[in-house]
Amino acid sequence: MNFTYEAGPARVVLRPGAAVTATAHEVERLGLRRVLVISGARGADVARRVADSLGPLCAGLHDEARMHVPAQVADRAVEVARETGADGCVAVGGGSATGLGKMVALRTGLPLLAVPTTYSGSEMTPVWGLTEHGGKRTGRDPAVLPRSVVYDPELTLSLPVGLSVTSGVNAVAHAVEALYAPDGNPLVSLMAEEGVRAMTSALAVIAERPSDLEARGRALYGAWLCGSCLGATAMGLHHKLCHVLGGTFGLPHAETHTVVLPYVLAYNAPAAPEAVRSLRRALGAEDAPLALWNLAGRLGAPRSLARLGLKESDLAVAAERAAGQGYANPREVTVEGVLGVLRAAYEGEAPGAGESAGAAFDG
Ligand code: NAD
């Protein structure tokens, strides 16, 4: 055994109704008196309810969050935070609203609280992202880690099944890569295995009964665990590849993670036996990549990059870019290897079954 573990300072509250019954208490616990509530336009109704529950603790509602935090959107939110004299921010929404809250926290030093409405897990990480000059930059800073996270399963009842499944698999991807991360540790592995178990079992129920509050709560519990894994470890090929596909080709974030994960796992599996054992236990299946691919199919999620709009001629560029960045991965990342992963993901065939998936095992 040889590891370093640093626990994030975040406090977590999870219960039905918590968004309107617990957020004010969390704001007060931090000694804040005027917080700016941040959301996207589509999530403004929910954010308004949270803002109303805050009463005089609310300095205003800013509902201009957009996917991948464009620079001008971040500039405007910082301006609004200053104009309203806010002493903290509450992000209500998915990774996009949390991402905007993080940029305000980074630029102003204001403490951030998060009330997540998807399963992407951003609320548990000190990772921020900003899109400018046609590219997305990311960084780590403890200042952007939310001080308190209020998980309310009732807020996720409106999350359509499709988005529930893809954002849930996005969370699973964090746990998968944490299981073979070079800076992993026994606690992260426990959280990752339990996160995958909780999330995948919850998604199966949500796809059948979207209004099942117990399953919605279990999915948020999974999001918490998987997000914590992302916050604690360095991610590998899967996250780099999805970053390239989103940043360079504009592919949708959660859907791309859902399509790519089984193929990257099949590629990395021979070099990560311990991670594969954990995933077999969590998924209750012998073949973990195939189990993830089957799950996506059963739950109606997209399974091919072609269906997400990627062109065959983009594959070589994406492979070059994803292989050309320095990062840790259990298996050597070669352009040929990534191209094999991408071809298989483009076709959407079962991982490890066809010629192109076979090519992924070369090199
Ligand atoms: P999102 O926040 O972009 O939301 C997706 C869509 O779902 C939006 O249209 C939103 O309005 C809608 N929506 C959200 N919650 C809803 C609900 N409960 N009911 C109905 N509709 C709802 O999606 P996301 O997948 O949560 O976040 C993606 C973004 O987060 C990306 O920019 C990604 O890079 C970032 N991210 C960052 C981290 C990190 O650690 N920094 C981790 C994961 C994701």
TrEMBL record:
InterPro entries attached to this UniProt entry: ADH_Fe/GldA, ADH_Fe_C, Alcohol_dehydrogenase_Fe, MAR
Gene3D superfamilies on file: 3.40.50.1970, Dehydroquinate synthase-like - alpha domain
Keyword Oxidoreductase: yes
Keywords: NAD, Oxidoreductase
One Pfam family here: ADH_Fe_C
GO MF annotation, one: maleylacetate reductase activity
Superkingdom field: Bacteria
Domain Fe-containing alcohol dehydrogenase-like C-terminal: from-to ranges: 165-346
Alcohol dehydrogenase iron-type/glycerol dehydrogenase GldA domain location: 9-153
Family: Belongs to the iron-containing alcohol dehydrogenase family.
Name of the featured protein: Maleylacetate reductase
